[in-house]
Amino acid sequence: MNKKKTFIYTLAALLLGALFYTQFRTWRGFDWSAFGKETANVKSHLLNVFLGVACTYFAYVLRAVRWKIFLRPVKNTSSRELLAPTVIGFTGLSLLGRPGEFIRPYLIARRVNLSFSSQVAVWTVERIFDVGSFGVLFTIALLNPETRALLSGFHIGKFALLALAIGISCLVLLVMKGESLASWISTRFSGFAPRLGELAAARIREFSSGLNTIHDASSFAQLVAVSVVMWTMIALAYWQVMLSYGVAVLDRPKQIPLVMASSMLGSVIQLPGVGGGSQLATIFTMQKILSVPRELAVSCGLLLWAVTFMSVIPWGLFLAHRERLSLRRLSAESQEEEQGAIEGPAIHERLGH
Question: Are 278 and 263 in contact (CB under 8 A)?
Answer without folding.
Answer: yes
